[in-house]
Structures are given as C-alpha cells and as structure tokens.
Design goal:
Elements (H helix, E strand, L loop, with lengths): L36 H37 L23 H11 L7 E6 L2 E3 L9 H13 L3 H42 L12 H16 L3 H12 L5 H18 L5 H9 L2 H14 L4 H10 L2 E2 L3 H11 L10 H23 L4 H15 L1 E2 L5 H4 L7 H8 L4 H24 L5
Antiparallel strand pairs: 1-2, 3-4
Helix pairs in contact: 1-4, 1-16, 2-3, 3-4, 4-5, 4-15, 4-16, 5-6, 5-7, 6-7, 6-8, 6-9, 7-8, 7-13, 12-13
C-alpha cells in the first residue's frame, strides 16, 4: 500500500534507499577499508540516543511511581508470592505469570492434562506450565547460564533490554510516516501505554513486541528471510503470534503478485514463519496425548478460550450499567481495559487512513480480533493489546507538531500516571 511521504528528514536522519525505508545514519556514506568509523558512530549515537533516553527516562518515572505505590499501600506483603506478593516490592514483578516462567526456566516442561479435584465451574484442570510459550523462559535460562545472574535477574534483564529494542523498532516504523519526531513520540507512547507495566517485569511482552515490530520493519524493507526468522521466533513467544504470521503471509503474497524476479525469499518466509508456533503446539499436544492439548489446558485451567466476543460484550454491557456480575470481575482493572479497547477502536480508523503497508494493517486488526474475541480475565486486555504498536502511529504523527520540551513534559506527566494505571492497577488491583 502507498502511504504519505514523510517530511524532509532533519539533520542526522537517515536517507531514502528507494524503498521508502529510512536507512538510518549508518547508510549516509559507503563503507570502505579506509572509512573512519568514528563519524558513523557519532551519527548513530545522535540518531538513536534521543529515542533510548526518552524511553528510558519515561519508564524510569513510571517504574519508580509503581514501586512507590506498592510500598505505600503495602498490600503485597500480605499476599502469596505467586499472586502479587513477596518480601520486597520488586518481587511483585515476577509473580503471577512471572512465577510460571521462572519454574519453566528452572525445571523445564511436564505437559499434562490433570483433573483438579477441587475444581468447579469453568476450572476443571490443574494449571500446567505448558500453557506458557518457551521463548522467554529459554532466553532467561540462557542469560542466567552465561552471566551467573539468578533467574529473576536474568528475566528482568531480558525484559528491559528487549523493551529498548522494541522502542527503537517502534521509532523506526513510525518514522516512515511522520519523520524522526513522530518516531520519537511513538517510542514515548510505548513507554506509557496501558499495560506497559509489564515491559519491565518477569513477563514476555517486551521480548514479543521487539520481535514483532522488527519483523514488520523487515517486511516493509523487503528483507523476507529476516522477517521469516523473526516471526518464527515470535511464534515461540506467544500464541497471538498467529496475527503476525497472517500479516507476513498476506504481505508476502501481495509482494509476489506485484514483483517480477526473486520469488524464493517471500515463499521461504511464508514457510518459515509458522513453524515456531505450530511446532510448539504440536509438541505439547503430542506429550499430552491429544493434539488439542494446549487449547484444552487453556480452557480447563484458565477458562481462556475463543468465544467470538461473547464475554467482551458481556463486560461492556455490564460496566455501562455499573454491574460486575460477569466472569472474573476486577472493576478498576476492567475499566482500564475497557478504556484501552475504546482508545484502540478510535485510533484504528486513523491508522488505516494513513494507508500503511498491509503487514501493519493485518497485524493490528487480527491482534484486536484475537483479544476481543476471547473469553479471559478481561482486565488483561490492556496488556494483551500492548503488542498492537501500529496504533501509536496516528497519535504520534499528530504529536510531532509539538516542540520537544512540550512533548517531553506531556509524556513525563503521563508516565507519572502510568505508575498507577499501567503498573499498580495491573499487578495489585487485578490479575495481570
């Protein structure tokens, strides 16, 4: 798809390679044996440092507020370490799903479908680690083995580093639509978006989004093999990678329809992309003795299944009249989730109006459909929609008109609030 050309690049920005892709500061001069690397390094620092500084500063503000609220309220001290509790505020970051990821990193998987003797209603099976995809705990274990850090420290390191990689990717993709200032605003929005409290925690969101955003960037740059490998890896990270697989497939087929020449790479990407997701689901199913094992476990142990939006409608109609008699109510967290959904639905037409490449459109729409079409703890919607990063683009394009001091101040104030709505509400007032 065509999209509006970005405004003239500011000094220090990359150059157009002919594909509409910002090649970055490293492409300003050809490489050669005698090329001085120092000017190129300085240009790279000038190009990327503002993105990293803004994102890091905003996250540090939000994270500090989150930790302060935890300590002030003190409720975590009376909760089980698995369920939002611990001896220290930072222990909360590796509770809930984070506890499962650490168990997998330490002990591996034992896939099984075991009836819960105390189960009732929708919960009929005991929870099992096979419900959590392997990429994040495997990376956590690898970092731990290589650095000597414990699993908690390794998991946090992976999440924090991946969050910065994702911020750079969000900047790179958005800069195509509105230039470097819009890319900077989008990276800032990634730091303060609802659900962003999981970016610096023992959760897999940061790693998944880093893979997803750079996979989309690779597709937009016609680097099909890179895109295929990144989507393969993302498929080992989260089940919603099916949206990313479909987006790559549609983009590759459109490219094949238009192009004359190399057909091998897009087809190879199409074949590689689903192998991670499908491979893990088949492995779990084989070990459970039922190829549907993963989905049976999700439904029986977590009441998580695709219901074509029935529960989402139930939640919205209940919240609209002040009721909380729906499945798994968490009023504060659910209201934040509902506001996130409404914000996303408002931004989606604005994104489409920019005429983005098909990979972004398909990925965003399918991510929304998968999240809203599922029966689940509704409060989780704010973090489940966090990977829908293309929604940042239209808002970032509007924000690019602000001066840098004004933009920074606005995002900083939002970061302060994010310590509550994106951190404390998610981990302590609900179930992340």
């Amino acid at each position: 798809m065509n999209h509006p050309a970005p405004p003239s690049a500011p000094s220090g920005a990359g150059v157009d390679t002919g594909t509409g892709v910002d090649a970055g500061p490293l492409a300003l001069r050809p490489r050669g044996p005698g090329t001085d690397r120092r000017p190129r390094l300085r240009r790279a620092v000038a190009h990327y440092a503002p993105v990293l500084a803004l994102y890091g500063g905003l996250k540090l503000i939000g994270f500090s507020v989150f930790m302060y609220l935890l300590d002030s309220a003190g409720d975590f001290r009376h909760k089980h370490p698995r369920f939002g509790g611990g001896a220290h505020t930072w222990d909360v970051l590796a509770s809930w799903d984070g506890w499962w990821y650490q168990q997998i990193a330490a002990h591996g998987y034992t896939p099984a479908l075991v009836t819960d003797p105390n189960g009732r209603g929708l919960i009929t099976l005991e929870g099992n680690s096979a419900a959590f995809f392997p990429l994040y705990p495997a990376t956590m274990r690898l970092v731990s083995d290589c650095t000597g850090l414990g699993l908690y420290g390794s998991g946090m390191l992976v999440s924090v580093v991946a969050s910065f990689a994702a911020a750079l990717g969000v900047h790179a993709v958005t800069a195509r639509f509105g230039g470097s200032r819009a890319g900077l605003a989008a990276a800032g929005l990634w730091a303060v978006w609802p659900g962003s409290g999981t970016e610096w925690s023992g959760y897999s969101e940061s790693l998944y989004v880093a893979l997803a955003v750079w996979a989309c960037h690779a597709v937009m740059s016609d680097r099909w093999l890179t895109a295929g490998v990144l989507v393969f890896a993302a498929g080992l990270g989260r089940p919603t990678a099916v949206a990313l697989i479909a987006a790559l497939t549609v983009a590759a087929l459109l490219s094949l329809h238009r192009r004359r020449g190399d057909f091998a790479r897009p087809w190879t990407a199409i074949l590689i992309a689903p192998l991670g997701l499908v491979g893990y689901l088949l492995w779990v199913g084989d070990h459970m003795g039922d190829l549907r094992g993963y989905f049976i476990l999700q439904k029986g142990a977590w009441a998580h299944t695709f219901d074509f939006g029935k529960q989402t409608i139930d939640v919205f109609t209940s919240l609209a009249v002040g009721r909380s008699d729906y499945l798994f109510p968490c009023p504060v967290e659910d209201m934040i989730g509902a506001m996130t959904v409404l914000l996303g639905l408002l931004l989606l037409p604005l994104l489409i109006r920019l005429r983005p490449p098909a990979v972004l459109t398909v990925y965003t729409i399918l991510t929304f459909a998968l999240v809203l079409g599922s029966q689940q703890i509704f409060g989780n919607v704010s973090r489940y929609l966090l990977p829908a990063f293309p929604l940042f683009i239209p808002l970032a394009v509007k924000l690019r008109g602000l001066g840098l001091p004004t933009l920074t101040a606005l995002l900083a104030l939002t970061a302060v609030a994010s310590g509550s709505y994106a951190g404390y509400a998610l981990f302590e007032l609900g179930v992340p």
